[in-house]
Amino acid sequence: MAVYALTGFSLVSLLSFGYLSWDWMKPSLVADVATDPMEKPLPPTFTRPPHIIFILTDDQGYHDVGYHGSDIQTPTLDRLAAEGVKLENYYIQPICTPSRSQLITGRYQIHTGLQHSIIRPRQPNCLPLDQVTLPQKLQEAGYSTHMVGKWHLGFYKKECLPTRRGFNTFLGSLTGNVDYYTYDNCDGPGVCGYDLHEGEDVAWDQSGKYSTFLYAQRVSKILASHSPKEPIFIYVAFQAVHTPLQSPKEYIYRYRSMGNVARRKYAAMVTCMDEAVKNITWALKKYGYYDNSVIVFSTDNGGQTFSGGSNWPLRGRKGTYWEGGVRGIGFVHSPLIKRKRRTSWALVHITDWYPTLVSLAGGNLSNVQGLDGYDVWPAISEGKESPRTEILHNIDPLYNHAKYGSLEDGFGIWNTAVQASIRVGEWKLLTGDPGYSDWIPPQTLTNFPGSWWNLERLTDGLRKSVWLFNITADPYERYDLSEQRPDVVRTLLTRLVHYNRTAIPVRYPAENPRAHPDFNGGAWGPWASEEDGEEWEGGREPQKSRNKKKKKCKICKLRSFFRKLNTRLMSNRI
């Protein structure tokens, strides 16, 4: 029988506060407003291709938006979602690169070779060059395409850069996380470099500007210089709210009553990002785009709970295949939606945006084979049934195999030591090591870094490698049904076998010393030529750059601290 350990209060007290009594079928704490009867119906087809603004936030937890009951103020997101369609059965990937790659390609990561971890700064790796990207398809349809923010899909060759993968312009960072003001990024002690780029050049002159403000201002500038008569696609991949936890002081002051310092800074970053979205929406209206626009909002993965994020009441966190790692915040706001102001329970995955947006743009998908995404616009706009019935969360053959998994436990057809997860209908299966499995109520985050991760822990999973949940009935993953329903386990294992047969080899090359920023004037950027293979072995130990004074990376010690903390958490994980 499952045993739960709570520090400070009990499950009964949680229930009395209403946390576990939240009606999952009506998660919005902002009442859905009935459609205005005077609202003019839209024609069955668009008269012009719509302008598309896709906003992606980084590490924002499922709980960390106002309409999910958060203590964080997000009035803009709340209003846009309330006036549009909230996606409450929406899935993403548990970490950065996989979500971004699936958005850009419409394919599961097992079909791009990116099924393990992230693309690291020194790896000769990037989004496969044979993939036709979402912005490239939109360019074919006559769109002007722009990217602002975090790329994190590789940059070792110039061919990997955003401007070579379908974007007319780019302002942002190439690596996974940078300082919000200095744009420094350290990939280990002494391996630090500047990472803010304008097109294919280093944007040294932008240092000192807070990235959330900088990116919103760039979007406004793009809209001001473009004609609303011509279709435009802007991909806004905010750095917020990924670590390091940095925010202008005036936003932190709003949350001065929060006892947890990390949560306080994190909340300030979320609210700052919310205001940036407000400014982008205002620019759409000011420059004449709004009436023919589609705004999509999505998170990239679950929140990191020891960095201020909260996925409550879901289980798990960023980097795990529990719902807290893969269920995302998502909504669509557009005057073009036929049935507005409602909550959709249609099953949607981040791969679905590729065919959905290309179809909205009037693009041609007939020459794109092997997409894993579906066109879900009828489900979003008209309330029709989603064409999607299952989601492969992932199969990662390189992740540490579970100690107690075996082929025998997988009915002889699947080694349950392998980390994998799949959703089919209302059922979800996890095998191997799904990741840190606790539930962390947000208001218990009182000390940082404290022992709050022990608040509620399932203690009967030490020798397990298979879990089965009815996600519709049990969205918090509290009742493992793998022993009661072996028939369902076997069926879902068969689906994993099917997907695994279609997987391509993992692309996860060794790090290359040639990538050191000191070889590139003190900045992160492409280092391999077109002739260099992925296993380039040349080079020497980097010398200090004479062209640019090397910037001192202020986040190296902080990153080292988080790595040690994560190791500690993993060693204590169930």
TrEMBL record:
Keywords: Calcium, Glycoprotein, Hydrolase, Metal-binding. Signal peptide: none annotated. PANTHER family: ARYLSULFATASE, ARYLSULFATASE I. It holds the Pfam family Sulfatase. InterPro entries: Alkaline_phosphatase_core_sf, ARSB, Sulfatase_CS, Sulfatase_N. The gene is Arsi. This is ARSI Arylsulfatase. Gene3D superfamilies: 3.30.1120.10, Alkaline Phosphatase, subunit A. Its cofactor is Ca(2+). The keyword Calcium applies. Belongs to the sulfatase family. Residues 529-551 are annotated as: Disordered. Residues 50-362 form the Sulfatase N-terminal domain. GO terms for molecular function: metal ion binding; sulfuric ester hydrolase activity.
